[in-house]
Amino acid sequence: MAPPNGNDRDTSGTTRRSLLAGVAALGVLGAAGCSRVATASTKDGGDLLERLRAAGVVRLGIAGEIPFGYIDKNGELTGEAPELARVIFKRLGVDRVQPVPTEFGSLIPGLNSQQFDVVAAGMYVNPERCEQVIFSDPDYQMLDSFIVRKGNPLGLRDYKDVVEKKAKFATGTGYAEIAYAVEAGYEESDILIVPDQVAGLNAVEAGRVDVFAGTALTTREVVKKSAKAESTEPFKPLVDGEPHVDGGAFAFRPTETRLRDAFNKELAELKKSGELLRILKPFGFTEDEMTDLTAKELCGG
């Protein structure tokens, strides 16, 4: 996957967290992407917020990923980003959210071609994306973690340990963890690539690998019912030799600064009151994932 800038997916559109449950249900609402929103005025930061208030609905681009934004088994839109969007847009005077499912790699092109109004998919903020869209401040931060066998027999706590102990290493298709392991000195050709964290857990439990790397949240959640595996303490991977923390946020068209700024104001209030954690907690987020990172920081200043 990933270039060493900490993308959660690579530039070809491969997902960091492979498409999980809910993908099959995308066809139920896929037609939503066929109609397009009207072109926004670029004057004074755009007029999209006013138009959304008049329409009473905002269209959210999602990529079918648990727990970030997906259609559940009942055909309902949910996930940390859509649920947060419901709260914030309600505060902004927009009563309804409507999903527009697409592949992850189509989110930014779809946003900029007017297919939906905002990306609500837990998208990581990085400099490359900041050249194409504008981001809200992150609503969560994310560290890495490993799935290992119970007791962590090899004592694997970071990518340096994996290299030094010559552990059999796996991660997911398109995951940023590929680049993090390679930067630590692991041969990319030796990495076992599996579809997602469920497959990674299975590989560890079966002894095919010693360790699977993923986000702290996904590894923590997937091992909960395992009798053979556990997740390690979260840690910061190194990017260009420096500890790195990723942050996920909402994306807007570059012309819509007024909407982005209004969104940020409400997000800041939710952070200050503690309401943000309450909204995200059902999806596995904890106090550790709350953040004061800004989009400006993650965009590179």
UniProtKB/TrEMBL annotation:
Pfam families: SBP_bac_3 (PF00497)
Protein name: Ectoine/hydroxyectoine ABC transporter substrate-binding protein EhuB
Alphabetical list of SUPFAM superfamilies matching this protein: Periplasmic binding protein-like II (SSF53850)
InterPro entries in the cross-refs: Ectoine_EhuB, Solute-binding_3/MltF_N, TAT_signal
Keyword Signal (UniProt): yes
Keywords: Signal
Coiled coil: none
Species for this entry: Streptomyces nigra
Lineage, broadest ranks: Bacteria, Bacillati, Actinomycetota, Actinomycetes, Kitasatosporales
Gene name tied to this protein: ehuB
Keyword Electron transport belongs to the record: no
Record-annotated Solute-binding protein family 3/N-terminal domain positions: 57-287
CDD domains named in the record: PBP2_Ehub_like (cd01002)
Top-level taxon of the source organism: Bacteria
